[in-house]
Amino acid sequence: MAALFGTKCLALLETEAQAEEIHVYTRALMAYAFTLPPNAKTLHSLSEEDDTIHWERPEKQKKTLDLPYYHPRAPSAEIEMTSYVLLAYMAKEPSPSQEELLTATAIVKWLTNQQNPNEDSLLHRYDTVVALQALCQYRTITYSKDGVDARVTLSSGDVALTKFHVDSTNSLLLQCKDLPSVPGDYTAEVTGCIFMQTSLRYNIQPPQEEAPFKLIVQTVPQNCTGPKAHQTFDIAFNISYTGQRMVSNMAIAQINMLSGYIPLKSTVKLRTEIATTQVLLYLEEVSGAGELGFSFTVELETPIQGLKPALVKVYDYYETDDFAIVEYIAPCSTGGV
């Protein structure tokens, strides 16, 4: 009975897959679904471009920023659907062909470029899980018993700054080196095949365009009234959706802590991730019909002279380029919110 039900479901999917108006995200999922049984017709409906290969939604326009060396990460949805296509290639029976492995390698190059430079993740938990599953499948299929033997020489002009050697004994070990000056001209000479990444940190927020969120932030109290305000205060904020849909996707409110202040965990009531420098609130959706209001308490841990404002940012979980930003400052600093 289960096998018959599964066959009927696949037959229905095959019929739907012939429709030209199917979204590319749906096609990516179908590609993976059709490789689990011995059927892979939908793979040929997907497109590829440039030196690396990935899939984009046609309705989502690329945003360019005039920041040197800035490489924006792809939206979470595009990482996810590209990962599903890689899984589809890796699931081919009895094994992927040489041509399919070359395509998969180009996909892997793109996926690894989306990794956060200071973390082992991509943008969010789900796209990270799917991407890691796909990359692990690729690693399993392309694994060689001969191991890896790669060497990298990093130079500036005629001066060799450092040398990296990757073999089977240290292939899982992260090796890194700080560049002595930026900007600068550097050359990397590589033998073998490894994953090499450079990261340049900015303390600059990309310019905010037409934000699909309205964000209002204030401190309670707003002014420095009484001795308690020097030690503790509440951060209160209201969020509403102003985009083209009735409600937003899942959204995240990212509240950066002021230097010297920490959040009181007991006062944060939503699904959260809390660190000493940041609070993340997960919002299932934000409506345009009304505002969502939240607040929590922070307290002074270490007094700081010349305190600078901190940011509250609300952004779409899947479209991180859709965001709103507001600054706030402690009520007993030189200014208000």
From TrEMBL:
<dbReference type="GO" id="GO:0005615">
    <property type="term" value="C:extracellular space"/>
</dbReference>
<dbReference type="InterPro" id="IPR008930">
    <property type="entry name" value="Terpenoid_cyclase/PrenylTrfase"/>
</dbReference>
<dbReference type="InterPro" id="IPR009048">
    <property type="entry name" value="A-macroglobulin_rcpt-bd"/>
</dbReference>
<dbReference type="InterPro" id="IPR011626">
    <property type="entry name" value="Alpha-macroglobulin_TED"/>
</dbReference>
<protein>
    <recommendedName>
        <fullName>Alpha-macroglobulin receptor-binding domain-containing protein</fullName>
    </recommendedName>
</protein>
<dbReference type="Pfam" id="PF07677">
    <property type="entry name" value="A2M_recep"/>
</dbReference>
<feature type="domain" description="Alpha-macroglobulin receptor-binding">
    <location>
        <begin position="248"/>
        <end position="328"/>
    </location>
</feature>
<dbReference type="InterPro" id="IPR050473">
    <property type="entry name" value="A2M/Complement_sys"/>
</dbReference>
<dbReference type="Pfam" id="PF07678">
    <property type="entry name" value="TED_complement"/>
</dbReference>
<dbReference type="InterPro" id="IPR036595">
    <property type="entry name" value="A-macroglobulin_rcpt-bd_sf"/>
</dbReference>
